[in-house]
Amino acid sequence: MMKQTILARQPGDLTVAWAQQVVDKHDINAVVAKVDVVAVDVGTTTRVCVAVEHNGPATLPSRWFVKLPSLKWRARMITTLPRLLQTEVRFYNELAEAVPLSKPVCLAAQSRFGRGSTLVLADIAEFAGIPSAASDTLTLEQATLVIEQLACSHARFWNNVHLDPEYRWLAGPIRLLEDALGTALAVPLMKRGLRLAGDHIPSVLHAPAIHYARHRRAAMRFLSEASKTLVHHDCHPGNLFWNKNRSMVGFLDWQLVRIGEGVSDVAYFLSTALSAETRRLYEGELLVKYAQTLEENGVTDVENTSLEQRYRAHLVYGFEAMIVTLAVGGMMNLNCNLELIRRTATAVEELDAFSALPI
After folding, report:
1. CA–CA dist 287, 285 (Å, integer)
2. Which residues of the chain carry a pLDDT beneath 50?
3. CATH 3.90.1200 residue spans of the chain
4. Closest CA to 236 of 101, 138, 350, 103
5. What pLDDT, in 10s, does the model give residues 232-276?
6. How far apart are alpha carbons 40 and 331 in whole angstroms?
7. 77 burial class (0-12, 13-18, 19+ CB within 10 angstroms)?
8. Residues 35, 51: contact at Cβ < 8 Å?
9. Which CATH class is domain 11-127?
10. What is the pLDDT of residue 3?
11. CATH number at 130-356
12. Where in the chain is the domain with CATH 3.30.200?
């Protein structure tokens, strides 16, 4: 007897029979009567919102958020080799429960070599969740909440995640392949991204950006030298969701989860989520809040001066990520992408981030 599969390649595969297999994982007596595709958004993955009519218990959501391989060939090429969707599937199957952050409810997650991956989450709207847009500008209060949550999660895995055999896959062959691919394509993607971004990036950053791309391997080595923890690695506003009064925050899109330095999440977040004015005024205060929250959760080896220096250096990755997103194309709404490029470029220029790298 063949093992049941929830794998799907395109929105048309999300049929009643497919949904029944997901429902069976939660209630063998529930029956699916109808499936309607409500919305489709194609970026790094194909994201499908479906309405599922079933007679299961009220605890079984009727609106699902399904992630499939991207239908855009460029995005699919850039995400297939590093197995980004497969990584997120494995995260939900093996790690999610240990991470002390709010996340969507996972209904099913499956990967098979050569056949792709499918992730089925409860639509956060089912639980009154409100998603952010990638270009949303967060308030100081919202940013403080995110920083506190990141610090609590980082503290949970501080200096032990890389030693635990259960988590070693996070730094295994797939991550090494991703890093190698990023290094191999760094120069052409940086040049293309700088050209496409035009006036959104000050010309003074062009030469150091190309220099960084040419020496990316050494830069990545430097950025991975400090204390290790579990990091989200893609913490921009579009990967957050909130409760109704925005007093609680949750984290979406765990495709890039890995072992890394905690302040990398902080740098990526602050440079993408805040206006330049808010960041200038409060980034020092938010770094102190991050360090204090780590200490409150048992981390004792963080020194503020060193944290500030590492923060500056890690700003470069957020800038690179947004440039590469633009260069590849089809991975993010263009206007959102350009706004995040403007924000990260401003942060990199103002804090002279490239000079913080020993390359």
Report:
1. 5
2. 1-2
3. 130-356
4. 138
5. 999 999 999 999 888 899 999 999 999 999 999 999 999 999 999
6. 14
7. exposed
8. yes
9. alpha beta
10. 58
11. 3.90.1200
12. 11-127
